[in-house]
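User: I'm curious whether this sequence folds into something compact or stays loose and floppy. Could you predict its structure so I can see for myself?
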Amino acid sequence: MPSTTTRATFGHVLTRPVFRELLATRVVAIAADVLRTVALSTAIFRSTGSPLLAALAFGLAFVPQAFTGVLFGPLTDRVRPRTLIVTTYLATGAATGLLGLVMPPTWVVLVVITLVGCLGPALNGTAGRLMADVLDGDAYVIGRSVMSMAMSFAQLGGLAFGGLAVAALGARDALLISAGAVLATAVAARLLLPDLPAAPGSGNVVRQGLSGTRQLLANRTTRVLLLTQWLPPAFVVGAESLIVSYALSRGFTTGAAGLMLAALPVGMIIGEFLVARFLGPDARRRAVPALIALLGVPLPGLAFALPVAACCTLLVASGAGFAYTLGVAAPFRDAVPEARRGQSFTVLSAGLMTAQGVGPALWGALAELVPIGHAIAAAGIVTALTAAALHPALRAAAAPRAPRPRGR
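Assistant: Here's the prediction. I'll summarize afterward.
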């Protein structure tokens, strides 16, 4: 089928002022969020000695996102993007600063983490809507790739700097640094981002959120594209959550476990760059099933007693498969109603966050019954089977469409 878009480049996307400012603020905010999570997890473990409570500091923010994303998704269309982004950053920065200044009991900290997590889908959905509004055609796909790679670098940097900051300054000072960075991001977003209009809308937000989500899932095209972006990450993130336990059970050092944990995001950065740089729009769409399979195929290798270097190589190869999302980004944008674009991206984000919470629970439970390497292998096999199962539906759902009119 002939291409309906002109191929964009990284340089072209980075010259777009609105995207450039959005990218900068998102990177700083992500790094600050990771620093906050490391600081809180460390502080909770030192004060309670409970690995479960420390783990909750990492994962509890994901729990409410499925509900808030569905129920309040229409707000991302009804509220001006800049207003919603700035308000979210201000609330997050204020909550983080309060924790650093007061350091309340653990249960209060966990409640605050949960409340901050409620803001995640709206922020992600608004960022997705803003990118779709300011980037045309293939530039949107390349912009998604640049944003994804930048956020991966921010997460890696936040983990590295977070550990050093907590060790050198303590958890409370690290929290104050995180709060200051997020508040500075709010000021930068207010000054740099344009005040784009909200989409017209009225009526009950919760009712509209539920009905809009039902419509997205009832439509075969959007349902297939949503499941394609939800299911593979759920399986692979579940496997990723077992990497540290796997490494320690194999007798590897803590440093080796850290290298294995970093291998997946490194592979994701490499895969995103190569697919965005060397494949055109149609080739990316056709490569989606193969790239999903690439996510899963290397993981069964961890069922064998391979050395650390081989394990890291397999994980880098698996991470490269995450580039499949570049092949479904434009079809999803084109398939959803423009007036509910923000809500659609919010539902997408809520599903991804839920996958990050459910996947580790499922595969962690499996690892209680079978060897950890076998549980990781099972996640890879299920991912590859998912690629085969989705292939026929994806050929129709990801087919190029005529671009929608830009006006609201």
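Summary: Residues 137-169 form the longest helix (33 residues). The chain has two domains: 1-202, 206-402.
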